[in-house]
Amino acid sequence: MREGMSRLQEHLQQICSETSEEAHRREPWREISIRLGGYPLDPGIRENDFCDCSQHAVPVECFAAFSNAYTRLVLRHYTSVWLTKSVNRVVGESKHPPINKVIEDLREFFGFSESGVPKVFQTWLHTALKSRFEILEGKSRSGAFRDRQKLNPLRLLPSQCHSVASCLAQVFRAEFTAQIEGIKKAEIAPADVGEGTGRPRRGRPRDKLVELRRRVIQEIAATGVKGEEYCSALAGRGLETSISWQKNEGCPRSYPEAWRYPKWRKRIQDEKHKNTRSHRIAQRSSSP
Ligand SMILES: [Zn+2]
What we know:
Blueprint: H1 7-25, H2 47-50, H3 69-93, H4 99-110, H5 119-128, H6 130-141, H7 153-188, H8 190-193, H9 206-222, H10 227-236, H11 243-249, H12 255-258, H13 262-286
Zinc ion binds next to loops.
C-alpha cells in the first residue's frame, strides 16, 4: 500500500486488488464461447451460469476491444463488482469525512486529474490478464512473433487494455460524479431524501452508454448485414437488448433470441432505423 493513504483510499485499494485478482483466477483469456440459449449441452457457457447479477454497473460496450467473448464476460463482471463495491464504500464513508475530502480521495486514488488514461485502470487490467501477458512474453522469447507481417499479439494486448481502461475511467468518473451529486443534495436537504433507503439514488452514465450503443449499431448496420445476421453481429460485439425492454416488457437479453419473436423483431428494426437515421443524414449532407 502507498504511504500516506487515507482510510477510504486504503479500502479502495483493497477492493481494487481483490477484484483484479479474482478476475485473474477466472482465466479471462480462455477461449470459451458464449451460448445464446439452445440446449443445455451445447458448447460454450451461458452468461447466467457465470454470475447471477441482474445488472452490471459497467456497460458491455467498454470491452469491445476484446474479440474473445469470455474475456469480455469476466472483465465486465469483475470491473462491475469493483465499481459497485467502491461506490458502496464511498457512500458508507461519506457520513464521516466532509464531502470535499471524499472528492479529493477519489481524484487521487483513481487518478482523475491525470492527463491521459489513469494508471489504476491499466494496472487493474494488467493484473487480471497477467497470465496472458506471461504466455505471450514466453512465446515472443521463443521467436513466435518474429514475422513482422503478422499482427504481434504482444503489441495488440496493451493497446486493447488501453482502450478498455479509457472507457472504464469515464464510466467510473460518471458514476462517482452522480454519487457525489446525490450526497451533496442529501446534505443540503436531508428531509427531502424521505422515502426509500435514505441513500442517494444510484445514477448511471446514461449518455455515455447510449452513445456507445449507437456507435456499435451504426458500425454493424454499415456492414449491410440484416435480420438474424445483424442480431448475431450485435451479440458478437457483446451488445444486449435494451435494459428497459428487458425490465419492463420481458424481452430476452440476447438479440438473436429476441429476433425469434415478431414483437421484438419489429422493435429491433425500429431501433436500428432510429440509430442510423442521423448517421445517414450526416453522410448524405457531407457527400457532394
Ligand atoms: Zn456478474
